[in-house]
Design goal:
Helix content is 7%, strand content 72%. It is built from one helix and twelve strands, in the order αββββββββββββ.
Length: 274
């Protein structure tokens, strides 16, 4: 698996920049009728995702194929940013970004077939994993009462980095492995969301989204789902709590590598609405 540098971080800034322009454009729109009490004209949320990760990676090396198996480690807290803006009474944009970064150290073992039989590889490995994920969706909100349904179509950006450092023994030979891989891509995104206002200051929500990337060097799927509650003790400042699940599964066809991480846990945000 070759080392690949310069993962084109400009794609992420392009998504964020497009959202910022949309917010400025929305602020310039003339006043309209009040939207559903389940929605805000514009909002910004800053918080963290506290997740229990399950990680799995398999890569080809000069010692054969190495598979980490399912690795469960202690929970990790990731910064997370969300923003929403209504361009019209029932349409708008939604932005979400978070980063997962973690190091793993574990023993490894693998078996592979050669012309002379089966070869067993054993050793220890250090894996450094980093995932950046951002999504931007245009949403249509159906309904005008206290409950609205949102359907979204947009784009998601992901960047996955995996660095492997290991010592391995094959038969009587011992050697070291040091290799890295990084991929980024923009993929189509579908979203669905449900909002219900118990009162203007207390609301419930549920969200789900899916990303599928086909073709190219890397392909895969990313799924997110969350349910939560919003409470505004002040008119424009509130607290958001949710529980979410994320499943990231990325494949590299050229090196037959696979990366998968599952995240589940609560998120907490401070939300400002306008």
């Amino acid at each position: 698996m070759p080392m690949i540098h310069s993962p084109r971080p400009g794609r992420l800034s392009t998504l964020a920049g497009f959202f910022a322009l949309a917010v400025l454009g929305g602020a310039a729109l003339p006043a309209m009728a009040e939207p559903s009490p389940a929605l805000d004209r514009a909002s910004f949320s800053l918080g963290a995702f506290h997740a229990d990760p399950t990680f799995n990676a398999s890569v080809n090396t000069n010692f054969g194929r190495l598979d980490s198996g399912d690795v469960n480690r202690s929970s990790v807290t990731m910064p997370r940013v969300k923003a929403d803006v209504l361009l019209f009474d029932s349409q708008g944009l939604s932005f979400d970004y978070y980063q997962f970064k973690r190091g793993y150290s574990d023993s490894l073992a693998s078996n592979f077939n050669t012309g002379g039989g089966t070869v067993t590889t054993t050793g220890t490995a250090n894996l450094d994993v980093k995932v950046d994920f951002a999504k931007l969706a245009y949403k249509w909100w159906l309904g005008s009462g206290n409950t609205v349904l949102g359907l979204g179509l947009g784009a998601a950006y992901y960047r996955v980095g995996l660095d492997l450092n290991a010592t391995a023994a094959v038969g009587g030979s011992t050697g070291s492995i040091s290799q890295g891989d990084s991929d980024d891509a923009v993929a189509p995104l579908l979203e669905v969301g449900l909002r219900h206002a118990i009162s203007p200051d207390l609301r419930l929500f549920a969200d789900a989204s899916g990303v599928k990337k086909t073709g190219g060097r890397a392909r895969g799927e990313i799924y997110n789902a969350a349910v939560g509650v919003e409470w505004f003790p002040a008119k424009n400042v509130g607290v958001v709590l949710d529980y979410g699940l994320t499943d990231i599964d990325i494949h590299r066809d050229d090196s037959n590598a696979r990366f998968r991480v599952k995240l589940k846990g609560p998120s907490a945000f401070l939300k400002v609405r306008f």
